[in-house]
Amino acid sequence: MTSSTTRSYANSMEYVNESEYDALTDSSSRSTSPAFSVSDRLERRRQKRTNVLLIGVVSLVGMLLVLQYSTVVTSETSTTITSPKLSPSPEQEPLSSFIHPTNGTVYANDHVRKLIDFAIVGNAKCGTTFLQQRLGRNPDISMYKHELRYLQHRDVAGMAQAMYDLDHTKLRGFKCPNDLGRRVSLDALRTYWPDTKLIVGVRHPVSHFESWYNYFTRKNRTLAPAIQMTNNLPDFSMFHGRLSMLGKTNTRDPDEATLLNHYRDQQLPRMPNPVFLYEITQMFDPQFQNDFSEYLGLKTPFRTEDEPPQFSYRRRMKRYFKGKKAKPTRVSPNYNFAIDVCEDQYIELRKNLMENGGRAAKWIKDYFLKASDVTVSNQTHFLTLLDTWTIDPCIKRKAIAAKASSKRQ
What is the DSSP letter of 138? Predict the structure, then answer.
């Protein structure tokens, strides 16, 4: 093969493999011209493939970085902030401004105070999840969709990190309905987040007990039979005891001490945080929604569109009356062990719950609501709801069940 033949072949070939290279570059036919050298062409093609590979790797890394840092916490509905006290900072301070980078110590400074605007801290089974979901649908509110229990585990740094990761241009909040009865949680809120607005719900003690018991039964929690709790009510049902841990009242009053009983010994220093107290049945009252919006400082009012199933007496009646128990599920084989607190065997239990509810209602009316930083919606209506805590709710439920039964017949 002549030198001219080699040049012609080198210019026309699409790819030169190693065997062709050996054939083309033997001693008798090797090109002497740099412009048409086979070795140069092979080197250029190897370099081109290397460059393509490098460009691909760089592009992939770039895409991963964009995906990682462009993730934004989004919500579903809209609320705008008017309260100057709650207006978020336009710029996020670096994490090192309130958490020590080495030992994880949280600094109790102004930077960390801005991390939490509001917190749903109580009480469990009082509509806290429903409230959390409605607030979470607001595009101007950034809050977790699950409970944050860092404070209960003394992990203040974990809480600060979790809230820091939320969108700092929105109101930031969290829900943990058991924080109200936890000394360690309240101490952390007092120390690091004294400006955080607290939200606390209450409800009729009889329906509250039933909801609590059935919830944990369906979660396969081991509980004593409800009938055995008649004379040993759980602490969670003492709304006034848990509220008293906020330190908003003067427990030296002998009448108040009598109402609080042993909770008087669990008093903590006064919490500087403002408190919004609601009764669960107020949630669908337009005035409550407006007052709640004003408390949080919202331009677009807080709204609860549709009545959820757990608030419908008719739906509850279908579950508990006429033997129409809910079917067991794969998640919880104990689903059918849920109690109907209106059965005659629970008469004494209901009586004790209502006596306890009467003491709680009196303490709330005579002492707790007098605190200057405690807010309720439509106080007259709220007090009327507290008065019903001494009335057996099963009277109304059975009347509804009887009416529904007569219509079916």
Answer: -
Please check whether residue 152 is in contact with residue 121, taking contact to mean a CB–CB distance below 8 angstroms. Answer: no
Query: Which helix (H) or strand (E) covers residue 54, if one does?
Result: helix 38-69
What tokens were used for 266?
């669990």
Taking the C-alpha atoms of residue 146 and residue 152, their distance in angstroms, rounded to an integer, is 15
Instruction: Read off φ and ψ for residue 142, nearest 5 degrees.
Output: -115, 110
The tokens of 309 are what?
A: 């199933």
Nearest to 111 by CA among 122, 127, 99: 99
Q: Let me know if 25 is exposed, middle or buried by CB neighbors in 10 A (0-12, 13-18, 19+).
A: middle
Q: In the numeric block, which tokens belong to residue 29?
A: 């036919």
Candidate from 29-38, 46-55, 85-94, 354-363 with smallest mean pLDDT: 29-38
Reported residue count of the chain is 409
List, for residues 92-115, the tens digit of each pLDDT value: 888 888 898 888 899 999 989 999
Asked if residues 327 and 335 have their Cβ atoms less than 8 Å apart, the reply is yes
Identity of the amino acid at 361: A
Residue 406 DSSP one-character state = H
**Which residue's entry shows tokens 């689903």?**
335
Nearest CA to 374 out of 363, 364, 385 is that of: 364
